[in-house]
Design goal:
The chain has nine helices and eight strands. By secondary structure, the chain is of the alpha/beta class.
């Protein structure tokens, strides 16, 4: 490993990505869907010694990953996931991307077909700041978690933590672990207090498996 890459691997990662990393058992095969520039992949490969691969739509993201020695291919998850065989990975990760998918329900089904487990994270539109912003200003919120204006956002399917749990129940998906993260990165178990998690959680992180 080059000194530059070693330095990149040692850099701290976002709190939600750290939580995702901790959900993955050692010696696992992992696919990161929509891996962007490979922040999580770099951590998994060089800090956790996990066999991690990625698929990314943007050319810039793929190039950044390949430059760091990561195994990443360019592709559209909504079109290409169907080509992966059943149970090809131990974990399939979809981080902060579900809300940008045209058909999030089908994507969730594909994640758990390809992987024995799936880890999904997304911004919680039920967070109190989003509710307050809509109530007071009557406009779509723009903040650190939702940084785009309504007219140029890639996010097309906003949901709340409660919405996601309902979808998992409808699809017969087991939620093995669920955590809400607030603005400061503090963790709150969702199942032990759904109302509070849905109100105070800025994002949700879920570990899922098939029933």
């Amino acid at each position: 490993m080059s000194p530059e890459l070693n330095e990149n691997a040692r850099k701290s990662i976002r709190v939600d990505l750290q939580l995702i990393s901790e959900m993955i058992k050692p010696n696992s095969r992992v696919l990161d869907v929509g891996c962007s520039e490979g922040e999580l992949l770099t951590h998994l490969v060089y800090n956790r010694n996990i066999d991690a691969r990625g698929i990314e739509l943007s050319t810039e993201g793929v190039n950044a990953c390949v430059a760091n020695g990561l195994s990443v291919i360019q592709g559209d998850a909504e079109a290409d996931l169907i080509d992966y065989p059943d149970n090809a990975f131990d974990y399939v990760i979809l981080s902060q991307t579900l809300q940008a998918m045209r058909n999030p329900r089908e994507i969730l089904i594909q994640l758990l077909r390809i992987g024995r487990r799936a880890i999904v994270s997304f911004p919680n539109f039920g967070h109190w700041r989003a509710r307050l912003h809509l109530a007071v200003k009557g406009r779509m919120p723009v903040n650190k978690t939702l940084p785009y204006e309504w007219y140029d956002t890639p996010n097309i399917h906003f949901c709340t933590i409660r919405d996601f749990i309902v979808l998992c129940d409808e699809l017969g998906i087991t939620i093995e672990r669920s955590v809400a993260l607030d603005t400061l990165g503090n963790q709150r178990r969702i199942r032990s207090g759904l109302f509070a998690a849905n109100f105070f959680g800025e994002q949700g992180v879920f570990l899922l498996s098939k029933r």
